[in-house]
Amino acid sequence: MISLNVNKKAYQLDADPNMPLLWAIRDIVGLTGTKYGCGVAQCGACVVHLNGEAVRSCVTPLSRAAGQEVVTIEGLSENNNHPLQLAWKELDVPQCGYCHSGQLMSAAVLLRENSTPTDQDIDDAMAGNICRCGTYSRIRKAIHKAAELQKQGR
To answer: Does this model's pTM top 0.85?
Structure first.
């Protein structure tokens, strides 16, 4: 049995320790907001937080997450009111929306570490997240908007 803490809830999983964290989250825990994109840590659709660090869950073995704090898109905020989620909605960022849980999770780490990112900071931090629809300019605008909302305490 592997102890897993996802979004502040404890789980005991009877699973292969080498199973990718992504599949444990989706198939065993039942949280499907984290997406499978490439399976080789190249697209960013599967980003979750592991002890506050953005990681690619498709290549993170379940054993690495054992006893650690995992946060998925479902745990980013209680009421979908994280500044990034508000900005994403206000600026109509998603087109197909498939990549956006990973985009949001990567951006959340960026804003936690840098509350006033420049365009270059955003581009650098988000470079590993691919958007098939090419909404990069809207993603950048939304991150700037979220930084403003965060400063306003929202």
So the answer is: yes
